[in-house]
Design goal:
36% of the residues lie in helices and 15% in strands. With 251 residues, it is an alpha/beta fold. It contains 7 helices and 9 strands. The protein binds S-adenosylmethionine. The site of S-adenosylmethionine (SAM) has 13 residues, from helix 3 and helix 5.
Length: 251
């Protein structure tokens, strides 16, 4: 249980600004005005004996209670304050892959998706996420704590040409599955000239198993079988999606 007294809260705020003044942020008049406020607060009858005992709960419990009214009440009007700032910041960005961390009901995820970004949202509240999934069906939403993002812990990269078929640039132990053309190499983007933009979806999946063989995948398995095996294995740790496009103008 926590004891919360509104008078203590207000005095604490005064303390923070007085410490700023102590560090040189403000002048004498500012400090004296704050000290006068402290005296007034201590003398205020309405702030006497207003303390309450409260239970500490997780933020998921809090948002379970507020999720239904979050969008309708718009934070008591507060959300309208940050939206223009967020919109200005995000509007100038080229469409790419966006992570909406602590996405809530998907306010900014929706904004980003409407501007062509591929959006993933993460939040620790299942209730807020349920709203976000309804609001932005094209985005991917994951339940997770921000200090333990449900993404691979380490970022890895493949050198250019890793899929050239020789296997020389692949990390030790890695192998290339034969693609739909039954070739063990990357064929490349090949939109016919004048056909407009072709979108390519590149998916990187991290699993909590050491060897792909544990998924019943062999060197000659199809990529579709690999995807199916990962999906049904329940060992998927994280999935990243990049969706570039290619276009060859008509001759
Ligand atoms: C005030 S809401 C903001 C939601 C959204 N970003 C917006 O601007 O509308 C804060 C959100 O942060 C989430 N949250 C709080 N702590 C979190 C944590 N440690 N990890 C992930 N999400 C968290 C809550 O569940 C809630 O949905």
């Amino acid at each position: 249980m926590i004891y919360q007294d509104p008078l203590a809260y207000l005095l604490g705020l005064e303390g923070i600004v007085l410490l700023d003044a102590w560090a040189g942020d403000h002048d004498r008049a500012f400090t004296e005005a704050r000290l006068a406020e402290v005296r007034r607060l201590l003398d205020d009858e309405q702030l006497r004996d207003r303390g309450v005992l409260v239970e500490q709960v997780s933020s998921a419990t809090v948002y379970e209670q507020v999720s239904a009214g979050y969008d309708g009440e718009a934070g008591g009007g507060l959300l309208a304050t940050d939206e223009p700032v967020g919109a200005e910041y995000l509007s100038g960005r080229e469409p790419g892959v966006a992570l909406d961390a602590a996405c809530g009901t998907g306010r900014f995820a929706e904004f980003l998706a409407s501007r062509g970004h591929l959006v993933m949202g993460v939040d620790s509240s299942p209730d807020m996420l349920a709203h976000a999934r309804r609001r932005v069906p094209q985005a991917e939403f994951r339940l997770g704590e921000l200090d333990q993002l449900p993404l691979p812990a380490s970022v890895t990269a493949l050198p250019t040409g890793a899929g050239d078929g020789t296997g020389e640039r692949l990390p030790t132990g890695a192998f290339h599955l034969p693609n739909d053309a039954r070739l063990t190499r990357f064929i490349g983007a090949a939109p016919p000239p004048g056909d407009g933009r072709h979108r390519y979806v590149i998916v990187v999946q991290a699993t909590e198993i050491e060897k792909v063989g544990q998924l019943q995948v062999q060197a000659d398995s199809t990529p579709a079988w690999l995807g199916h095996s990962i999906n049904t294995s329940r060992h998927l740790l994280g999935r990243a999606v990049i969706a570039p496009w290619a276009e060859i103008p008509a001759a």
